[in-house]
Write a structure and sequence with these properties.
Length: 358
């Protein structure tokens, strides 16, 4: 006898409450407000689970849309900074999976093959540089590998996806990323008067410390060790914190003057640089920091520049005054994992440089 055919229960409207629901084996399951994105997502998850239970394999009837939903639930709890805030990787996965679902959301995971991955690769090439495309394809492979562990993807799928090669320099029509260039000091100095006091202080401190934009915008009063001649700042969140690497930023006399002015009336838990119309417990976003600069550039008819370029400018100026090793030391760049001896030498060297320029 042929097995009983699985019938997908329809999504229905409960008129008196305005709720969306589905009926399965005489029992109603409610998903939320009718026609809302949340209700549709819950309904699709519900149907996918029924299919897995009916099929008994747990993998053949899983759609790529469901895989994406389940992975983002995992990612929301996994890609977090120590303080509980989401890392930038979460937004990257959200954008990548949005493109995946747009093209193949209703396909089954068992149907996803190298040809579809190449199609997605070509879709990314419309708006992204080659290196970004390669990172995004690696994220897609990771999602399907994660799906194998969760019994949402057949083990054969990730194995096949490995055969799609990354895009290589000079062997693809995808554009190359533009290198981040330094900003001429003349342009920066002409921009500064048009910036708000807090944004101006952030720009000036970046130039004096060669810090990254997020290291400055997330700086709190209590993060600074002001006990020595050179102040020390050890950001808890930085580019390589997930690798277990420490980061030490030294602040010389000129940088200390900027900070002293910005910290007036603030508590240890307050951000040193906060939006003028917000409380000190709320920092600037990176986008707001960038927009504040580019708007002034546009208003004054100056070449546009961004906070990321300031680190390059600072490195260039340090290299001019000292040498390349001095620049590497202040920026915190290393080729190997930092050892305690190497770190001590770097901090001492950075302190000497800050006393001279910062």
């Amino acid at each position: 006898m042929a097995p009983h055919q699985f019938r997908v229960p329809n999504l229905c409207l409960h008129k008196s409450s305005g709720q969306a629901y589905a009926k399965w084996k005489g029992k109603r399951t409610y998903f939320g407000k009718w026609n809302s994105p949340e209700a549709i997502e819950k309904y699709e998850t519900f149907i996918a689970e029924l299919r897995r239970l009916h099929d008994g394999t747990g993998e053949l009837n899983t759609t790529i849309r469901l895989l994406s939903i389940e992975f983002m639930r995992h990612a929301a709890d996994y890609y977090l900074h120590p303080d509980g805030s989401p890392t930038s990787e979460l937004a990257c996965y959200r954008a990548v999976l949005k493109a995946l679902v747009h093209l193949f959301g209703e396909h089954l995971t068992c149907e996803f093959d190298p040809a579809k991955l190449i199609c997605l690769q070509e879709e990314f090439a419309r708006n992204h540089a080659r290196t970004t495309i390669n990172r995004n394809i690696s994220r897609i492979r990771y999602v399907f590998g994660w799906g194998v562990i969760k019994n949402l993807v057949p083990t054969s799928v990730p194995d096949k996806l490995k055969f799609v090669p990354p895009l290589k320099l000079g062997r693809t029509k995808a554009r190359e990323p533009e290198p981040v260039a330094s900003v001429p000091l003349e342009v920066i100095n002409r921009t500064l008067p048009g910036l708000s006091p807090s944004i101006r202080g952030m720009v000036q401190l970046q130039l004096k410390t060669a810090a990254r934009p997020s290291e400055i915008r997330l700086l709190k009063v209590g993060d600074l060790d002001t006990s020595g001649e050179v102040w020390i700042y050890c950001p808890g969140r930085h580019k390589n914190s997930f690798r277990g690497k420490s980061r030490i930023i030294t602040v010389g006399p000129k940088g200390q003057q900027i900070l002293t002015s910005a910290m007036i009336g603030k508590e240890p838990g307050d951000y040193v640089f906060a939006p003028d119309n917000a409380t000190p417990t709320k920092p600037y976003t990176l986008a707001a920091y960038r927009r504040a600069i580019t708007r002034v550039c546009d208003r004054l008819a100056l070449p546009r520049w961004t906070p990321n370029q300031l680190r390059h400018t600072a490195a260039t100026e340090i290299c001019k005054s000292f040498d390349q090793d001095a620049s590497r030391t202040v920026l915190g760049h290393t080729d190997k994992s930092t050892t305690e001896i190497y770190l001590d030498r770097d901090v001492s060297r950075a302190a000497e440089i800050m006393l001279a320029i910062g």
